[in-house]
User: Fold this.
Amino acid sequence: GTDFYDFTGLPEGVSKIFYNYSHFGVMDNQAFVLSSETDEGDLIRWSPPYQLDVFPSTFYGQTEIGDRDENRALGIRDGRAFILKKKSLSQVQVVNGRISEDVGIQARGLYAENFYTVIDHLLYFGDENDIYIFNGNVVTPFLMPANVRQYYRDNKNSSSVLLYNKLLNEFWAVLNGVILVYQFDYDVWVVLDYSTGHPLNGFMDFDNQLIGIIATGFINYNHSSGTFGEAVQSYFKARVTDLRTPGQYKKVFEELLYCECSSDVTVTLTDNIEATSKVQTFTPNATKETVIRKYPSYMFREFECELQTESSATLDFVFRSLKIGVIKWR
Assistant:
């Protein structure tokens, strides 16, 4: 028969498959992470192909053996993994189960943990004295003229981040109370003040809108032309549910929401065939995960399910599950 190691594709001798980690990236269908375990500050771990949440105990490598400088960030650029430390940059890949360093650059590193971004296969990262661009071979300084570089040096801090506003084609260096912006289309630097909270990091949604993560929630920098940095809610929409019988009526008789949230959570069921909807508002516990039950009594032929928090919800929002009880109606 098939033993455990053949079934899972893991090598014999694996004793553990989960470790604390940070900075997740995917390359060649494998996940790469920085280890957050005690005394593993210069280790990276990787997964087997197509098992992106599995990190076997034997799948690890050490960056720059003997180097006391711990890893600060990991990401993927043009099919290669990069590792940033305080005073160095490495580009690596895994060859025959071992870390192989393609490029190693000293005296250029990362000033703050999230002070980097990738734009069009180029890595931009904030060092102590400048922002640099890495193209896979060499590092070049980005901040010109000299007064822009000096402004950067005077205003960077340990919470600084780099973001890309794709819809405006702008490079953002979030500094101490200001955003240093480079407009690619016009080749000009400008400074923006912000009052919506210091972004700790950010990402682009499916519409390429820039979403900033602040201490108390999320803000959207592209949604409104009149408001800079709108607070947004946590939100998702599930696929259409019709139980493969769109011509028959069904009934929702209960909803069970398992979560923790500092604001109300709204669950909306919408039947686009019948042009009807049913809204239920849940009030979760703000400090622990609980299950809340509602009895909506909603007739439908198909429905889309939307879940949304209020803008006052904090980043501590935890969503575990939403179960919807349905019976066929005859």
